[in-house]
Amino acid sequence: MRNRQYYIVFLLAFFVFLSAHAQKRYAMYGVGFYNLENLFDTCHDEGKNDHEFLPSGSYRWTELKYTSKLRNMARVLAEMGTDRLPGVGCAFIGVCEVENAKCLTDLCNQPALKDRNFQFCHIEGPDQRGVDCALLYNPSLFSVHNVKLIPYVYELEKDARRATRGFLTVSGTLANEPVAVVVCHWPSRFAGSYYRELAGKQVRAVKDSLLQENPKCKIFVMGDMNDDPNNASMAEALGAKPDIDKVKTGEMYNPWWNILTKQGRGTLIYDGNWNLFDQIVMTPNLLNQKGKKDFSTLKFFQTQIFERDYLKQTEGKYKGNLKRTHAGGVWLDGYSDHLPVVTYLVKEAK
To answer: What digits encode the pLDDT tens for the residues 233-261?
Structure first.
């Protein structure tokens, strides 16, 4: 019912938008992010602590479980964006908690994604568990020009031998415009706020460098930030703000801030409360500020927390919680402990 209500609200909003621009034609694009929650294959990667996800490991991670996990992830990824773009879905989707290129190849070979010829960008990172970030993309909508993994750099000497996930940075073209995506999985809450604030500062520097190279480049920072939009790493270190008209040069816009603080909605549940760690934020050149309605170039239109009934437990003690792959030592054949997010963009069609 909730999805139907959101869809009706969207249609009304879009019809108002169209009526106000009745003499023009517009194209819409979706971009997304999804934490895949431990997409591991069944083989050991040398030098990585992936022992839990082996047939002999604590999760008894067999080929059956792996195959089912691939099918479940592909279903969600293929459906993301289809509420607004039926049969098309997202142009690109950032993902995290994926073990290696083999997992991504197997994922893209799932029928739901193979039908759209989904490809991926990935660089093996230094994370001790072996989980990485990647970008899946539909090559008919998004063209890739450059891919690099920018390392997370520790400042304290005591952290020198630690290794964590870097920032996967992909530059390309969407709707005939230069676009860059920085896919993140920031340090966990166990690490403390300082380490995520450090990530925010470093990603801000990456964003500034991309804009220095090309001021017209439209940049998305997306990922599992392990922080809410109003936490210091996002609000101050990265400079992602909640009010479109108050976003300044050098800052970014975070549409998820008000979704959490005013609507009380999120992407994961902890101790019975919603957090919104999964975010997509953007540079000011993607915004129409001060009431402006210029869609001659690619512009932000709307956001969506992607929800389906099958992503949640429907009965028992944990009814309403997200349906994970495992919980309490039991294989649930579920999806993830996070909900995906989607951002929609609009551009005038020439």
So the answer is: 999 999 999 999 999 999 999 999 999 99
Give the CA distances from residue 249 to residues 94, 282, 285, 287, in Å, rounded to whole numbers and listed in that order.
Answer: 25, 12, 9, 12
Q: Which residues in the chain belong to E strands, given as ranges?
A: 26-39, 92-98, 119-121, 132-137, 142-150, 167-174, 177-185, 218-224, 240-241, 252-253, 268-270, 273-275, 278-282, 299-305, 326-327, 330-331, 341-348
The predicted-structure confidence for 284-335, as pLDDT tens digits, reads as follows: 999 999 889 999 999 999 999 999 999 999 887 778 899 999 988 889 999 9
- Report the alpha-carbon distance of residue 204 to residue 251 in Å, rounded: 9
Burial 302-316 (b: 16+ CB within 10 A, else e): bbbbbbeeebbbeee
Mean residue pLDDT of the chain comes to: 93
Tens digits of per-residue pLDDT, 38-67?
999 999 999 899 999 999 999 999 999 999
Decide: residue 333, CB within 10 A, 0-12 exposed, 13-18 middle, 19+ buried. Answer: middle
Amino acid present at 224: D
CA distance 257 to 169: 24
